[in-house]
Amino acid sequence: MNLLLLEGTAFCLYFASSILLIKDIKENRYKKIALSIAWLASLAHLTSISLLTWSKQGLDFSFFHTASIISLIIAFILLFASFGKPVEKLGIALFPVAALMLALDYIFPSTATIGQHYSLAMKMHILSSIIAFSLLTIAAFQALILALQNKQLKSHNPGRLMLSFPPLQAMESLLFQMISTGLLFLSVSLLSGFIFIEDLFAQHLVHKTILSIVAWVIFSSLLIGRQLYGWRGKTAIRWTLYGFICLLLAYFGSKLVLELILNKV
Asked: Is the CB of residue 182 less than 8 Å from the CB of residue 244?
């Protein structure tokens, strides 16, 4: 199967779905077709990654390919969540990001030799890390939307996009559900990481580990603060974004420096 054709199809479908979700804000009749197109885009994206993995006889965790995998998982989580919760409008921002990551992965392919056989602990660490980052990325986008909702409600001039989202209380509840689930996978990631890491400094993982632990502390503190002190609103938004920034630097900061700046794999 032609990989360029497959990825090009996914790229176009992601943007088509996003455009239809924007149109649904005004006309309220494009949701189903937009989500159907997004499913097709995600499946095409998944097929392209599977074919690439098969051709390289192993997983590729280079910078852009990892970003492409994470964006795919984010898209799938959002699509599955949309069955029971009104979160599909997040696709307006998240689907184009998935398309962009897919395009960058094709434009800047990895030259690394793939074929390493990972241990069970390593596979658990990688999978839990990717799922944790995906869930907490969605939480970060939700936090940004909550900030906009708060601002527009205070100005008494909410736009159509903000009105298309659930009420603030429902959005906050969903935010903490995403954070709780993401924190669970982040905990598994950290625990399994300590199992397989033999030399923290030689593997260039010290910064990632420290920042991931900081993110874990931030998200844990936020959940405890909500439970004990009723933290919400601006406090929840700030802590969510601080935690996500730490996680973003942990997952991609070192890879950006090592692969794209220092040209080390």
From this structure: no
